[in-house]
Specification:
Helix content of chain A: 25-40%
Radius of gyration of chain A: 23 Å
Distance between the termini of chain A: 32 Å
Strand content of chain A: 15-25%
Number of strands of chain A: 18
Number of domains of chain A: 2
CATH superfamily of the largest domain in chain A: Zn peptidases
CATH class of the largest domain in chain A: Alpha Beta
Number of helices of chain A: 15
Largest sheet of chain A: 8 strands, mixed
Oligomer: homodimer
């Protein structure tokens, strides 16, 4: 996922709950529990995750790898028996990584490990050499006189704490999102930040940033946490001597390319009813194979939809979207919004926070559906999922829809370890716990069983 | 550390214990416990480890970085007040890493992460492309007909288990040590192995291998575990289609260069008595900063010797050796053996198995010193160190001395997590637990306090 903070592209519709008496309980059909329990033996989500990460691997938005991923997705979704499988294309600007290296020239010569941030500017092929000027927070950089920064390589060592719900990412991700523009405005030669991550492996965390209008792009990269702390130690032990770094970053903007969303459906018995949208994103960052970000998300939601489809025909259409180009700017979510945002959805929900267990459910279904929301909470409890807020929910690609007031369900995954892997070379299949993945499928199957409006005819769920 | 298996360069002298009545207990001076407890507050080992890994960083044997490390060591040992600080040089052949990349060309195009093994042959700069032929063990490779292997890139996926005492490394490290020669004899174009390691990060484990006499060097590299398992999945999902890899490895042999051992002493009151040798190795592999392998080893043993020196003058000389060029073939240990191996040592002991807690003590001090060995075991128990074998002990650089029959003490570190980091980019300072490092210093201080033959005058240990 990229940041949850998005410019207010679309007007928000308030659906805040007003205090009301408790609704009468909704009786859940018996198949809900049966489908939930059967899903705990799911193998399809693993197969999709393994297949996409193995047969395609990394799939940076707008590249031929993402196009191969779309072809893979279409073939997979068709083979699973979904209807209306299609690609909806859109154009987008594409940035690709080049060479990247950082070397401390003096006083303690050594290499450091880093990775360019999305939309980073480039150095000449031979690199640049400059003195490092260090700040322990973005505020300290903001407050620095331009003269202190001009011509230097800015280093921001600001650290993000580990949280279960990822709530640090908005605030503590600021050095990545805003640091490059601030440094450029002050005349910096380049900026390197401590990775927005929580692990101590030599795998830097990339991620998107965008230079503000009128700001000249400068080289911008993230050091792995061990390297960021090494640079802090080098500066400390240099004891006032200048620390000089040679930085080589040669990414390129390769112009406008095509991306697209892959869409498939389980047709509802009543096509006039608003659909339920579930999905994740198909693209990944280029360093890992995008296993937890977000092959697992498309796999979980697709496996759940498949279980509903195999169990019977739902009243409402279930629409599965494997969004394109999420990581680099929510292009897929914005394209979907343009095409479908004006039409009502019964609910929108996205899985894009890894592959660890779902621990909480949040909803914003509106006052008229309080009983349904309560039934959903009850149905999820046997999976160890606790009730969360009843007036909010979020996702990444669905942000424009959520901001426009569409009803939303959020099945919150435990993110305690998410930022150990997020946007690093380490986002690979081996990091996924198959049992946790199955619990996710069970949660999503349960949600779809509750919200899809009754299945007919009911066949026994396959075990 | 490199392998504990060394060609029998030196004749072994048997000192196997013969069953005897229990010796009368040795009364330990009271300062032993005081020194042990004070060492649990040690900061010097951390300072040395941090300093060496920060101010020098990686220090591949025979390179200018290792020379800088020797200069750093001499300055540090002199500033600590040790006597007879000196460098004893020797010449050695030097191999250095070049470019390295692996790309699956078909059927599922993607990059894999690997690192060349020591003494690997080189590909042309543009690389080679060949079909991958996979073996799940070294025996399977040995048994394969040459025709199956000729012109191909051999892949050995054999996995090493995690153990507390590192006992899997000898046996399970065989694909690294012997695989390249076996593959070359069969006409392979190159060999890639699953890293000899236990972690799942995209940081390959390098390590030395040596082509047997008369065997042509071929490119040889290790995939990280996630990449090795990815390659296994690619082969499985290719479903019989050939899997083709492009491999670029451009290491070079740069000829004979100088390395050296750095030696310092705490002079004993009786210089005619055999010294106690303690130490670790100064060189490191080039991918990390050599924090646990083996900055911590030289730091722990030096900090312990410093504590004895500050507490009083020992009867026997304590000789600290920071061995050079261990990783690439025990050159420092062999040089020391040539210079000093013919002279008796009171004990030899090395710290080269990481920085986790010492959990066991092994000794081979001979039958006449059973009471002393028992006293040492008693003195170490309060640190949670259990008694181990009384007729064996090992180290890396000290292997020639041990094989020649010199008395040895082994303070065994917990190696459960050692092979997560060993020889990878991830061997960095942040992996060291300061409390465990202090426990090591306490163990080594205790050992020196027991074996060094009485301190005069006793000053209160500094806290």
């Amino acid at each position: 996922m990229i940041t949850r903070i998005l410019p207010a592209l679309f007007a928000a519709v308030s659906t805040a709950a007003i205090a009301q008496p408790a609704p009468p309980p909704v009786q859940l059909p018996s198949y809900v529990a049966a489908l939930r329990d059967a899903a705990l033996k799911d193998d399809l989500a693993w197969d999709i995750t393994e297949g996409l990460t193995t047969e395609v691997g990394q799939r940076l938005a707008g590249t031929e790898a993402e196009a191969r991923a779309r072809a893979w997705a279409v073939a997979k979704l068709r083979s699973l028996g979904f209807a209306n499988v299609r690609i909806e294309t859109f154009d987008m600007p594409v940035w690709v990584r080049g060479a990247e290296s950082a070397t401390i020239v003096s006083p303690f010569p050594q290499k450091l490990v880093l990775a360019a941030l999305g939309n980073s500017g480039a150095t000449p092929p031979e690199g640049i050499e400059a003195e490092v000027v260090s700040f322990d927070s973005l505020d300290a950089l903001r407050a620095a006189p331009d003269a202190l920064v001009r011509g230097k390589i800015v280093f921001v060592s600001h650290a993000m704490p580990r949280t279960q719900d990822g709530s640090g990412y908005g605030e503590f991700g600021a050095p990545r999102r805003q640091g490059p523009s601030i440094a450029s405005r002050k005349g910096a030669a380049a900026i390197v930040i401590r990775s927005i991550g929580t692990d101590y492996h030599r795998n830097p965390h990339t991620g998107v940033q965008r230079f503000e209008d009128g700001v000249a792009p400068i080289p911008a990269a993230a050091l792995s946490l061990p390297d960021a702390e090494q640079l802090q130690r080098i500066i400390k032990r240099a004891n006032g001597q200048p620390v000089r770094m040679r930085l080589v970053l040669t990414p390129r903007n390769i112009g406008t390319r095509q991306s697209g969303n892959v869409i498939a459906e389980v047709p509802g018995r009543d096509p006039s009813l608003p659909p339920i949208l579930v999905g994740g994103h198909l693209d990944s960052w280029d360093l890992g194979t995008g296993a937890i970000d977000d092959a697992s998300g498309v796999a979980i939601t697709t496996a759940a939809a498949k279980r509903i489809m195999d169990a019977g025909r739902p009243l409402r259409t279930i629409r599965i979207v494997w969004f394109g180009a999420e990581e680099v700017g929510l292009y897929g979510g914005i394209d979907y919004m343009k095409r479908y945002g004006g039409k009502p959805h019964y609910a929108v929900a996205e899985s894009d926070f890894g592959a660890d267990r779902v621990w909480r459910v949040k909803t914003r279904l509106g006052d008229a559906r309080k009983a349904e929301a309560a039934a959903l909470r009850r149905a999820l409890l046997p999976l160890g999922i606790v009730p969360g807020a009843e007036d909010e929910g979020e996702g990444s690609d669905i942000t424009p829809l959520v901001e426009a007031g569409q009803p939303v369900v959020e099945l919150s995954q435990d993110g305690t370890h998410y930022f150990d892997l997020h946007h690093t070379p380490d986002d690979t299949l081996d990091k996924i716990n198959p049992e946790a993945l199955r619990q996710n499928v069970a949660a999503w199957t349960t949600m779809l069983a509750v919200l899809s409006g009754g299945l007919e005819p009911i066949r026994r769920p396959r075990r």
